[in-house]
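#random but structural
TW: two for the price of one
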Amino acid sequence: MLAGWPIDEGHLLELWPHSRTAEGRLRWLYRLTRCNRTVFSATDITSPVGTVVSTSALISSATTALRFLTLRPGDTDAGYFDAYTRTQITWRDRFAEELSLYAQEDACGYCGRQHSSPGCGVG
């Protein structure tokens, strides 16, 4: 199952179930693109033990991934960004603050408004 979340005009977050961890967590492969160019791609997001692939699990994992991808200096320890490429740092400095609105608690994963995401249709 693949899920694509067109966050805004230029950004797309895609998720796929990748594997299970030894303790039974679902590991997700995600890719964030800007204008069809990959900015981030990794498998470091996992769901709780026993999670099955579902719309709810996809939305939760997408929101979690976006929360981490939109962290900025001051949100976490400085070493968090040590492995970032120049492209990722430039992206963070230009887009992270704006896109972080879509990762807030109770914000729709489609339109960013304050309502639940499933099916959106603008709320």
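TW: number two ↓
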Amino acid sequence: MANTAQARKRAKQAEKQRAHNSSLRSELRTAIKKVVKAIEIGDKVAAQAVYSTSVGTLDSIADKKIIHKNKASRHKSRLSAAIKAMA
């Protein structure tokens, strides 16, 4: 346990930041799942609409360094390819 006032404050700040980052990661996973679900349904127009909103979420979270920018790029690429592959 933290012994000094400074260490106690840093522990408190770290916990608050961890909770915030966790909620952003959850938002990221939800955005990806929405696109995947739209692809599975087979509605290309809906999938493209959901994808365009999810891209903003992915980029925002990558800009905040919650995930690496290459990971965000990889997700966007794979989702985009899946939408393009739809008949």
